[in-house]
Specification:
2 domains; two-stranded antiparallel sheet; alpha+beta; six-stranded mixed barrel
Length: 400
């Protein structure tokens, strides 16, 4: 019996029991589609985070108050021995040759209003250099004025969403708004940018850092961003940063992290999560494989006479074994192909609904799920095939 004859014989046998065959294919399809969709979402999350950090630019150092070794938590969470101040930012600007921009940041949430319209939004205190450090642009007006960090003017730059909500029928530039109890003049509107690292830049108010610290009664900065020169040695700048702040605070009470280290750590975490959810989804593949085995066992029990006739006509034992294995592999292959197509369709619909989320099944997941699905079909088809192979020809012809 040639391979072509064997495939044709197996297809004929499966089509004779269309309903049972379809149910087994559906089970395998659901299992494969689950793996495709979940790995696509995991890969999309990884790409999204990587894109978000890449949008910050390169050669970036982030200084956070508090040490993770001291607090036993994520850097910056919990109490810290010393505040991270504007004077610290000035000292870093003077003391590190390779630094191009030093950007102090204060973040809080506050009510921003214009006449009867008001919104609760994020308010960010920073300096003019924030525009270049975060690679942003102003679509109308201008950004925060240049000047000393400790001199805060009553001005604000707002995002496009906030501008539309507060000023639906007029130009926001030059208008007065209230941030908390403070009156501030709008001098600029940011270009539409969306979310970056959990911050919605379109629904945000940006004010001078000194004004923000007075507005929120803060003595400590949330972060200090250091933008280094293109050819700068990041590790050397990190050591200099820690040395300067340790000297000023009499102890090492800050955490200094690089963009590359954050990206690498998050990438490892998200890759692990992707593999974990793929493993969970693979359980449904195992269940689908059991369905294939049950179908083949029933098929063997119903086709004893057929097996006996094949043996009586001279079919060898390994041909009988190969015949039933071919049926199991065909079922698994059909389910795998249908599952991959269904998974891609589901991911496509998801991306159409959420276009900013770059979900896409990785090539390794497609290859792995295809191999595993067909492998499980073959593995779970071995028992029924061996059972058919062991049938006695005379008893099988008699239907026993």
């Amino acid at each position: 019996m040639s391979p072509g004859d064997m495939v044709g014989f197996a297809l004929t046998a499966l089509l004779r029991h269309r309903r049972r065959s379809l149910l087994s294919v559906i089970g395998m399809t659901v299992g494969v589609a689950s793996v495709v969709v979940l790995t696509a979402l995991g890969e999309g999350a990884r790409r999204y985070v990587m894109d978000q950090f890449s949008s910050l630019g390169t050669n970036l150092l982030i200084v956070i108050p508090g040490r993770n070794e001291t607090t036993g938590a994520f850097p910056g969470v919990g109490g810290v021995p010393n505040d991270l101040t504007l004077d610290d930012a000035q000292a870093l600007k003077r003391g590190i040759r390779s630094v191009r921009l030093v950007v102090p940041i204060v973040v809080a949430s506050e009510t921003v209003s214009h006449r009867e319209r008001r919104r609760q939004v994020g308010v960010l205190g920073t300096t003019h250099d924030f525009l270049e450090a975060r690679e942003l642009r102003v679509t109308a007006g201008e950004f925060l004025p240049r000047g000393e960090m400790d001199r805060g003017a009553p001005v604000a730059v707002i995002g496009v969403t906030l501008a539309r909500e507060l000023f639906p029928d007029q130009n926001a530039i030059g208008s007065m708004i209230r941030i908390g109890d403070w009156r501030m003049r709008v001098i600029g509107v940011l270009e539409e940018k969306g979310h970056q690292i959990g911050l919605n830049l379109d629904d945000l108010a940006i004010v001078p850092v000194a004004s923000a610290m007075r507005l929120f009664d803060r003595s400590s900065l949330f972060r200090i961003l250091l933008k280094l020169e293109v050819q700068a040695d990041i590790e050397a700048a990190k050591r200099q940063t820690l040395a300067i702040l340790t000297d000023r605070h009499d102890e090492e009470d800050v955490t200094c992290i690089t963009q590359e280290s954050v990206v690498a750590s998050l990438s490892k975490i998200l890759n692990s999560l992707t593999l974990a959810v793929a493993g969970i989804a693979a359980i449904s593949l195992t269940v689908a494989g059991l369905g294939v085995m049950n179908l083949m066992l029933v098929s063997v029990s119903e086709r004893t006479s057929e097996v006996g006739l094949l043996k009586a006509l001279g079919a060898a034992g390994n041909q009988i074994l190969a015949l039933f294995l071919t049926e199991a592999i065909l079922l698994a292959t059909a389910g795998a192909v249908a599952g991959i197509v269904l998974g891609h369709l589901a991911v496509t619909v998801f991306v159409m609904k959420y276009p900013t989320f770059p979900a896409a099944p990785p090539a390794w997941a497609i290859a792995a799920v295809s191999v595993v699905a067909v492998g499980l079909g073959a593995a779970f088809g071995v028992l029924p095939a061996r059972r058919a192979n062991r049938l006695d020809p005379v008893a099988a012809l008699a239907g026993r």
